[in-house]
Amino acid sequence: MSVPFKQILKSEEEIRDIVGFSSEVVKQKAIHHLDKHCRDFIAMSPLLFLSTSDEYGHCDVSPRGDASGSVLILNDHYLVIPERPGNRRIDSIRNLLTNPHVGLLFIIPGLKETLRVNGRAYVIKDDEILEQMTAHDKKPLLCIAVEVEECFIHCAKAFMRSGVWDSTTWQAEEHLPSVPTILAAHVNSNEFTAEVIAEGLQISYEKRLY
Questions:
Q1: Is the pLDDT of residue 100 over 90?
Q2: How far apart are CA 71 and CA 206, in angstroms?
Q3: Beta-carbon-side half-sphere exposure of residue 131 (alpha carbons within 13 Å)
Q4: Phi/psi zone of residue 46: left (φ > 0), alpha (ψ -120 to 50 degrees), beta?
């Protein structure tokens, strides 16, 4: 399939000529450990996005949501994310088995700035760590440990432009996409209608969060 673009930029020099360079604050803001400020930010964050890729460069981004404080900080260089029940595709985990490099984006509701953490990840099952991550009387089967290599605050512009925390910009519920309808169309099987999928999702959300 031919690419429908006429001007594809292929060098940083070309791009710098257009966007320019960062300020001194931006150039120097990255640190290489979890200081008190990063620890406090992560402790208040109930939602993060985990970015991975496999050895061929195929990428994936997965949300990880839990109660604030559920990400365990072991020390200045290691944090641990509980692997709560999901759909068992294990996309992120399969990627980590061949490529340990990860990017994390931590979000605090109402705060427009985010915290980015980059590093190397390990899939672990250390029982003493799993025990510390028990929630609703359920211990995770696995965890993702991250060795922190870089962390920095990301500016608020994306959240300001999107108005994501401003409820007046939200779509009315009746106008939102129907997820069961989308899934039924993608699965494309007479066995799995939108109604069947909706019932399955409801059971999963009610009984298999932890």
A1: yes
A2: 23
A3: 3
A4: alpha
